[in-house]
Amino acid sequence: MKFFALTAILASASAAYAHATVRAVFINGVDQGNGENVYIRSPPNNNPVKDLTSSNVACNVNNVAAPKTLEVSAGDVITFEWSHNTRGDDILDSSHKGPALEVYGTEWATDTLIKNGGHISITVPDLEAGEYLFRPELVTLHEADTAYNVNSARGVQLYMECVQFKIVSNGSTKIPAGIDFKTSYTYSDKGLVFNLYNEDPKTYVAPGGELSSIAVAGQAGIGPVPSGGSKPSTSTAGTTPSTTSAAPVTTSAGVITSATAPATTDAVTTSRAPVPTSKMTTVTVRSSSAIPTSTSVVATPSASSYPTTPSQGNSGTVVSKYYQCGGIGHTGSTTCAEGTKCVVQNSYYSQCL
């Protein structure tokens, strides 16, 4: 069977080894159940991908076809559910702040995602019928001040899964050429190497390319799971999408092709095999960033998001490896698990390593 790849860069936020994954989706508000290794190509754990040269950037480290494919039609609302370890848990540590592909009012996108149970929605474009991979992704920036190829202890942290869908409506839209992960997700990309603590968040440019003409206007983005049975219009956003469509999230659509395939080939036959990762292209169908543009809602954190005095924290609870143990404003435990120690990364963040 053919599997096109519809990739979704859903959120960018600060997170200290947030260990977040997508474990389930909703279609028009209906829970499809736990999708881990059922309809989601789930990785073996919730660790990030940091090596931008790795093929794991495409669908994470376990790019093995799942046995089930979910059916959707143009205009259907797909809601991805992010979680930490299990469905309905804390999603991300609330102490993790950062600039995002979506910035709401005076709070970071991570806060909004947590408040809404890790739910973020997109609308299916009027694409040709066929099987597609939707790729939700979190781009976390708390250690992105230094590239991974310079210091492997740091670097941007990417979290993504590929979710299998079959579009059963008879649309006429083909996925545009887009950008190639191999040439676009690089250590020179300012959206993937960014100093969260010293750079102006309004200067942040998210990876993933510009908003595509196949984008659907008025998508829900981060928020509660939509009520069942409600489907928006499938009109496209075009080159000048509304502010509403651009504000909450970036979602991308792309085509996976084989390196040895003819130039005219838009997809490869997978027969439930892993997606080839020699080339994976993506085009943005939902976009918002911290950079002021006509297609984005721009805001910066309120003053309360920037504590001015250090906290002594709480020495009682043991903090697991990779989690926060100190920094300005930190009120949690400062006691690291056995075999690790609290290492200062910067004035705002210390981590058990």
TrEMBL record:
Biased composition (Low complexity): 292-311
CDD domains assigned: LPMO_AA9 (cd21175)
Catalysed conversion reaction: [(1->4)-beta-D-glucosyl]n+m + reduced acceptor + O2 = 4-dehydro-beta-D-glucosyl-[(1->4)-beta-D-glucosyl]n-1 + [(1->4)-beta-D-glucosyl]m + acceptor + H2O
EC number(s) recorded for this UniProt protein: 1.14.99.56
Annotated region described as Disordered, given as residue ranges: 225-251, 263-315
Residues annotated as signal peptide: 1-20
UniProt-listed Pfam families: AA9, CBM_1
Role summary: Lytic polysaccharide monooxygenase (LMPO) that depolymerizes crystalline and amorphous polysaccharides via the oxidation of scissile alpha- or beta-(1-4)-glycosidic bonds, yielding C1 and/or C4 oxidation products. Catalysis by LPMOs requires the reduction of the active-site copper from Cu(II) to Cu(I) by a reducing agent and H(2)O(2) or O(2) as a cosubstrate.
Family matches, as PANTHER family: ENDO-BETA-1,4-GLUCANASE D, PUTATIVE (AFU_ORTHOLOGUE AFUA_1G12560)-RELATED
UniProt free text on domains: Has a modular structure: an endo-beta-1,4-glucanase catalytic module at the N-terminus, a linker rich in serines and threonines, and a C-terminal carbohydrate-binding module (CBM).
Protein name: AA9 family lytic polysaccharide monooxygenase
Organism ancestry: Eukaryota, Fungi, Dikarya, Basidiomycota, Agaricomycotina
